[in-house]
Amino acid sequence: MIKLSLSLLGTLALVLGGASTDAVAQTPKRGGILKFAVSAEPPNYDCHAATSFAFIHPVRPHYNTLLKFDEPNYPKVKGDLAQSWTMSPDGLTYTFKLKPNIKFHDGTPMTSADVKASYERIVNPTGGAVSIRKAAYSDIASIETPDAQTVVFKLKARNASMLTNFASPWDCIYSAAKIKADPKFPEKNVLGTGPFKFVEHVAGSHWVGERFADYFEKGRPYLDGFRAIFITNTAARVNALQAGEVLSEFRGHSPADRDRLKAALGDKIVVHESPWICSLVVTFNTEKKPFDDARVRRALSLAIDRWKGAEALSKIALVRNVGGVLRPGYEMAAKEAELVKYPGYGKDINKARAEAKKLLEQAGVKDLKIKFLNRNIPMPYTPVGIFLIDQWRQIGVTVEHDQPETRAYITGLRGGNYEAGLDFNCDAVDDPNLQLAKFISADKSPINYGRYTDRKLDDLYNKQKGELDNKKRYALIREFEQHALNEAYSIPIIWWHRIIINWKQIKGWYMSPSHYLNQDLQDVWLDS
Amino acid sequence: MSIITATPEITYKVPRRRHPAMQFVATQPLGAASLVFIVMLFLAGVFADFVVPYDPLTLDYEAMLAAPSAEHWLGTDAFGRDVFSRIIFGARTALAVGLLSSFLGSTIGAAIGVASAHFGGRVDLAIQGFMDVLLSFPIIVLALAVVAMLGKRLVGGIDVNLILAIAIPMMPRVERVVRSSALAIREMAYIDAARAAGYGNMRIIFRHMAPNVVAPYLIMFTAFMAQAILLEASLSFLGLGVTEPTAAWGLMLSGTSQEFYSQAPWMIIFPGVAISLAVFSFNLFGDSLRDYLDPRLKV
């Protein structure tokens, strides 16, 4: 058995600007309430069904996962509930030993049975429970619990991303007894083993957590509690941060807000910047005409000048890089020389638009009018939406822009009640299995809103997933990407760039390329 | 002896009747000035395509957040769109939504008001009860509820549901004013005569009563134009009205304007001025029209 203490992902070309290295040098202090802003509210309380930061930021401090990312050393993983773990030489068995004396917030002990029940809920949800990322866990054949402290996962096939999956911040461990009694229990209740106990959620106002005295990590958490304040208006949120009413907002700020706060607060704040594992993609509803025609979809992709758009939008919105299906800079992502060969990624936009018009003509589509569904969160959805509408106008396409609130937007996408939509593909970690899941057939992936079936993509996805040789995996991913972008069911537009502004007294929090990571607040403390 | 008495020559000075328009200008100079501005606004909106120096929707990456200059009189926004061009096109949006919604709200309100006054009794009581319910909601709250309930439905590029959302809160307010005028008219002899002649309700309402409530109707209509423009701007600002990239004044104050207002204040100042001037003009014109048409105020 090979003891794994490092992620299989290897080193990423990340720029984790301004990580809180000073925290290492200082002795953490106990006490204080961390107040931070959240720009949206969680639609429900279930980790396994959630996809939004609006969920992770207030909810994650109440839960633990089997593994988690080693905060200052992303993408390394370390144990959260697990004390140690091993992988069999054939890569088909993972064995986890749990830490002792772990309790749920109601005082009941947490055992391997709870881990098994939680993962079974993720792999095969029953009783109306929703598991949004089950595709990533489809290789799990069985889960065994030889004793209360040991969990054994047996896989059907090797999976290069399995260890990363076990560190996902969405894989909250629930009480087996509670979800047995009601599989939908976590939707409306918060009961975890995390560093903070749930106190209250006042809709439209705030969310409060208090220190869990029986937390299994001795001396943690440092904070007495936290208070997440829901502030949906961007200007109000920035004002709250400037006034010190909140000490942070962990999703991200625009370049304009960063400059304003830097000018106003100087060295009272710390600015962290990083590439972001988040992209905006346009998804076409292939069940609606004329988006069932690949020529139409490809034409709409060809009309977009991604390079010039990225350069301009990066000045006003929290987006920066042009990329394909994986984050630019990630070792498995396409290099620029490869990207420019894909439809819609060439640098001669006039040529691309001429081809786009020809494709529309061949498809017999004249005066195309699109109903474009977008999210009403201003940053970065509105600027990117405005950009896309402008780009499509230039090949004679008229766009009706619809920006409902988050719930209606998600419902529209999931229910297929749209023609084209600005969708997001955000993950906690750089991992082809996660990011590519957006593009595989709808019957294999609950986050495919394009409602199409493409077995070639499914086949390539499975091949790359089982390929442990990075070079071969890279080639398979390129093949996948080429096919996905030719078919243009979902077309990546631009990747995000994360800017976090914290008041200086926040210590022990580390920047990551994902707004889903490092949010359990276990090691965060306040320097008075 | 004859007595000859000289008949004194009596001369009457008949006052020269001025043209009503000239009289309005003479008696209501501020109202006239407002009217000129409103007409200019209408012309700018109607002929926006010929007036504007730039396409209001085209992005210009080279001119992002450009300050007012000879090239861009009122500067550009975060996408390099010309603020002046967007204000002119915004006038089209404001006036189209304002005109249609206040026409709809005022006309339906007036028709219900006259009918309510004419029928009286239980019909009047029921209608007034319903109007009381509508009146109990502040205008913006009722508009928000309607727009949230109906969603968005574009017909010819105009959101019909937005117009309804603005028209519905106005309807009971016009209805109440028009009804009070119609109640007085109902007691007039010519209405009794019409009834005695056996005319039907519709004929009495539309031929004999409605023409006599035109003055309050017009005053409410112009006053609500201002309200409608403000409401459209408010709803767009709140993200419930017109959506990007349509040029609309309220929308110009939201979105990236909130991010860049300190760096590029022209992004919010000029649309704000446009809203203020339009609302001020319609209010002033409405007040002047009321003063001009209401005989009691001429005493």
> Strand sequence of the main sheet of chain A, in spatial order?
14-18-13-17-15-16
User: Number of helical runs of chain B?
Assistant: 13
CATH class division of the largest domain in chain A: Alpha Beta
Termini separation of chain B (Å)? 53 Å
Describe the 3D structure.
The complex is a heterodimer of chains A (528) and B (299). Chain A has 528 residues and is of the alpha+beta class. Helices cover 29% and strands 22% of the residues of chain A. Chain A contains 17 helices and 20 strands. In chain A, strands 14-18-13-17-15-16 form a 6-stranded mixed β-sheet. In chain A, helix 9 runs antiparallel to helix 12 and helix 16 runs antiparallel to helix 17. The N terminus of chain A is likely disordered. Chain B is built from 13 helices and 2 strands. In chain B, strands 1-2 form a two-stranded antiparallel ribbon. In chain B, a hairpin with a 2-residue loop joins strand 1 and strand 2. At the A-B interface, helix 8, helix 10, helix 13 and strand 16 of A face helix 12 of B.
Write the layout of secondary structure elements.
The complex is a heterodimer of chains A (528) and B (299).
Chain A: E1 2-3, H1 22-25, E2 33-38, H2 53-59, E3 67-69, E4 77-79, E5 82-87, E6 93-98, H3 112-123, E7 140-147, E8 150-155, H4 162-166, H5 176-181, H6 185-188, E9 196-202, E10 206-211, E11 225-230, H7 234-243, E12 248-249, H8 255-265, E13 269-284, H9 294-302, H10 306-313, E14 319-321, H11 336-339, H12 349-362, E15 369-373, H13 378-393, E16 398-402, H14 406-415, E17 420-426, H15 432-436, H16 455-466, H17 470-487, E18 490-503, E19 506-507, E20 525-526
Helix pairs in contact in A: 9-12, 16-17
Chain B: H1 20-27, H2 29-46, H3 48-51, H4 83-119, H5 121-135, H6 139-150, E1 154-155, E2 158-159, H7 160-186, H8 189-196, H9 201-209, H10 214-237, H11 249-252, H12 256-260, H13 266-293
Antiparallel strand pairs in B: 1-2
